[in-house]
């Protein structure tokens, strides 16, 4: 994982998703929304036929785990146990190989890759990780030397920034999971291991691209772990899975699964790709996100939540039992109001974090508004629904003005592919910046929800008080390339 200074932490084997910012006015993007010039940042994709189906996010995921059935996968394996899918057909192996090759990394070195930010060179010696990174830009000759002489593993961060087919795959997977999807490539020479035994806080799908990799998986010491950690040999016990991944194979295991991997002797090298997702996507994370606004809304109607706490409570000199009962009563009140539908749970920060940091659509034609401007008589539909979130939040344009609830329509159409999952932060943007979205009065929420839920809808049917308001809403969405005239 990366901190803001660009240094590497211990978590390098499996991709860690970017840390959620605890400070609400910090964001991870730059002000430049332009996509990179193909000659500067892309590697030409091979014309290898794809065994994956890109018709929809669901089709893509189903083809990724074929011949496993989606329902069986989520009922028996997701967050429960590992799965190894062996692929014996040459077409899948050929396609996997085209996703990333050693020659791709060598050509990318000419484009200004840097250690730590783009590449890590690591090896496992006597159960300990050793980092062999240099300073500054990466040279292909130095990487080759590390592979041959030091038997080091090369970890390349976020290849979807450069490889179009990985962009295409990960964008669809982000739509399917509704969560960020990162990736890393690992190139490991024969008879060597890159990292010690550890576990991660992400769901991991491993695609074996070239060669073979020997995986040992162990029962979690912390099921569904919420952080990365190295594990000691004494704690892990015997492996639950002993797997040789071959080109075209897929291996899945849940977060918290203890694991280690090495390239067997006699195999020239192994290249595998990790696709990782669902970091900080638990019920606990959702509760932390919705609780502040939930408590604020509840306090408006429940006087007991506005009563003062006991004197000297902050000095830890108050009666603990009565305090616990009072807090428990307040939580029960909120829980009852949620269950009865009298309080709404609004996820705000998680939605913003996802939509502002995910990949833009692979189809760049979606950035261009449709030719016809919508009018009252038209039928319309939202486009790119999987790239849109609607949030209800307080808005405060100036510090000396009172806050009010507003509706924000945020989208990822203008996100930067080249910075996806790189963990950089920018403090220049305000929390309620709408440079990638729109802001409407709370009265527009129902109309926006109509558009979100319907396949198509007449502009005249929008639940707004005037024809002018209906037209202004659809034109605003159209101008952001979020709406089509059917």
Automatic annotation (TrEMBL):
Give GO terms for biological process.
ribosome biogenesis
Naming one, the record's GO cellular component terms include: nucleolus
List UniProt keywords, sorted A-Z.
Dioxygenase, Iron, Metal-binding, Nucleus, Oxidoreductase, Phosphoprotein, Ribosome biogenesis, Transcription, Transcription regulation
The catalytic activity of this protein is classed by the Enzyme Commission as 1.14.11.-
Q: Which GO terms describe its molecular function?
A: histone H3K36 demethylase activity; histone H3K4 demethylase activity; iron ion binding; peptidyl-histidine dioxygenase activity
Enumerate the Gene3D superfamilies for this protein: 3.90.930.40, Cupin, JmjC domain-containing ribosomal oxygenase (ROX), dimer domain
In the UniProt record, does the keyword tRNA processing occur? no
Q: Cofactor stoichiometry and binding?
A: Binds 1 Fe(2+) ion per subunit.
UniProt similarity note: Belongs to the ROX family. MINA53 subfamily.
Q: Per its record, how is this protein called by name?
A: Bifunctional lysine-specific demethylase and histidyl-hydroxylase
């Amino acid at each position: 994982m990366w901190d803001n200074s660009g240094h590497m932490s211990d978590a390098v084997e499996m991709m860690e998703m970017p840390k959620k910012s605890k400070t609400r006015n910090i964001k991870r993007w730059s002000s430049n929304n332009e996509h990179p010039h193909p000659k500067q940042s892309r590697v030409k994709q091979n014309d290898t036929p794809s065994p994956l189906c890109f018709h929809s996010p669901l089709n893509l995921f189903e083809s990724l785990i074929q011949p496993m059935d989606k329902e069986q996968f989520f009922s028996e394996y997701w967050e429960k146990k590992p799965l190894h899918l062996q692929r014996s057909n040459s077409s899948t192996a050929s396609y996997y190989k085209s996703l990333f090759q050693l020659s791709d990394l060598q050509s990318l070195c000419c484009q200004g890759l840097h250690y730590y930010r783009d590449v890590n060179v690591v090896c496992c010696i006597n159960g300990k990780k050793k980092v062999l990174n240099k300073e500054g830009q990466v040279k292909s000759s130095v990487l080759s030397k590390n592979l041959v002489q030091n038997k080091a593993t090369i970890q390349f961060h976020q290849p979807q920034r450069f490889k179009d087919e990985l962009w295409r795959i990960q964008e669809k997977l982000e739509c399917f999971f509704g969560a960020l999807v990162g990736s890393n490539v690992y190139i490991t020479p024969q008879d060597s291991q890159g990292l010690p035994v550890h576990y991660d806080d992400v769901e991991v799908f491993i695609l074996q691209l070239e060669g073979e990799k020997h995986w040992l998986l162990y029962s979690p010491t912390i099921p569904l772990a919420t952080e990365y950690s190295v594990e000691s040999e004494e704690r892990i016990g015997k492996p639950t899975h002993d797997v040789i991944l071959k080109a075209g194979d897929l291996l899945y295991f849940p977060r918290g699964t203890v694991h280690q991997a090495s390239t067997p002797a006699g195999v020239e090298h192994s290249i595998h790709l990790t696709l990782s997702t669902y970091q900080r996507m638990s019920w606990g994370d959702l509760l932390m996100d919705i609780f502040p606004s939930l408590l604020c809304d509840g306090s408006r109607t429940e006087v007991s939540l506005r009563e003062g706490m006991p004197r000297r409570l902050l000095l830890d000199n108050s009666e603990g039992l009565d305090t616990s009962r009072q807090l428990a009563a307040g939580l029960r009140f909120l829980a009852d109001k949620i269950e009865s539908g009298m309080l709404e749970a609004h996820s705000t920060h998680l939605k913003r974090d996802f939509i502002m940091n995910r990949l833009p659509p692979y189809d760049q034609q979606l950035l261009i508004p449709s030719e016809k401007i919508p009018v009252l008589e038209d039928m319309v539909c939202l486009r790119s629904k999987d790239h849109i979130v609607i949030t209800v939040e307080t808005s405060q344009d100036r510090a000396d003005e009172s806050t009010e609830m507003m509706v924000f329509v945020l989208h990822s159409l203008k996100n930067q592919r080249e910075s996806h999952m790189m963990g950089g932060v920018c403090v220049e943007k305000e929390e309620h910046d709408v440079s990638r979205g729109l802001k409407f009065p709370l009265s527009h929420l129902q109309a926006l929800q109509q558009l979100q839920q319907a396949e198509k809808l007449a502009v005249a049917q929008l639940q707004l008080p005037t024809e002018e308001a209906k037209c202004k809403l659809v034109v605003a969405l159209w101008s952001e390339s979020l709406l089509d005239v059917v």
